[in-house]
Amino acid sequence: PMKRILEFNSNAIIIPRIILTGTLVFLVTNWTMIPDQIPGHYDSAGVINRWTSKSGLWIVYFVGIIMFAGLSVIEHFPKTWNTGVAITKENQKHVYQLIKGMIVTLKLCITTIFMFLTLYTTLMINLPKWFTPLFLIITFGSMIVYGIMIYRAR
Question: Which end of the chain has the lower number of beta carbons within 10 A, N or C?
Fold first, then answer.
């Protein structure tokens, strides 16, 4: 399983950067076609319930960038991670690889969520009903799976 996690990590490291870059290119190239008023909020069912200026898209984009950057910084300082298990010489490498995998997975989830929100907002359509439950399951599910693997690695 560790080899698959490392392979996933190496692929998942580049995908969020591609998503963020693609979102930026999408916004810049389509900016003049985006209406001045766009959805500003969706309810829990994904229905638009507030409208705002299209400049709000930049806020969504930069929040995604800030979250990605923050996780990227944290990713490089393993001694600051709250692992939930005692770190020993025997388990240190394995536990740190697992936590790094969890952070990489979270970056992928977060950038995908923000890209999805940007796309649906610019298209001015309701979010699919499965959007919120699916991304909550994927985000928290991956954290639970990694938590179990970290617990077993102790």
Answer: N
pLDDT in tens, 59-69: 999 999 999 99
Q: What angle do CA 107, 16, 22 make, to 5 degrees?
A: 145
Question: Where does the pLDDT of residue 100 fall: very low under 50, low under 70, confident under 90, or very high at 90 and above?
Answer: confident
Task: Render pLDDT for 37-55 as a digit per residue (tens, 0 to 9).
Answer: 999 999 988 999 999 999 9
